[in-house]
Amino acid sequence: xxxxxxxxxxxxxxxxxxxxxxxxxxxxxxxxxxxxxxxxxxxxxxxxxxxxxxxxxxxxxxxxxxxxxxxxxxxxxxxxxxxxxxxxxxxxxxxxxxxxxxxxxxxxxxxxxxxxxxxxxxxxxxxxxxxxxxxxxxxxxxxxxxxxxxxxxxxxxxxxxxxxxxx
Length: 167
Description:
62% of the residues lie in helices and 16% in strands. By secondary structure, it is α+β, with helices and mostly antiparallel strands. A hairpin with a 2-residue loop joins β1 and β2. The two termini are 23 Å apart.
């Protein structure tokens, strides 16, 4: 946020406390609040995707271990929607269909599928880290704007009470 959003003053000074600057600060606070809410939604989606990737990775690693031990097919439940499941047998030695983006899925061996999912999970973690950094920046800006707005309000109230002409 540039200095204009805090009236050009962090700590004040009479010339920085105008009604116009106060209104700008309040508008900026509202915009930042909305951006923070959007970032929070993005972060929730990112965290959910990270969890899904981790679950898929763990499942594939178990299948890989079973294949390496020569164990046969495992019976599992496959969700088909509406709280309903199907019994199915999973062959741990088979390839896996992995979504590689843009609605495109490819068949990959277990090791490559795990590697692909781990890379995407790492990308999600990096995106989440950038989101957190931005959230922290916005929170700092909001604290500074809130401080300025409170000081400006008090100053303008005093001027109004004493019959001052404003800044």
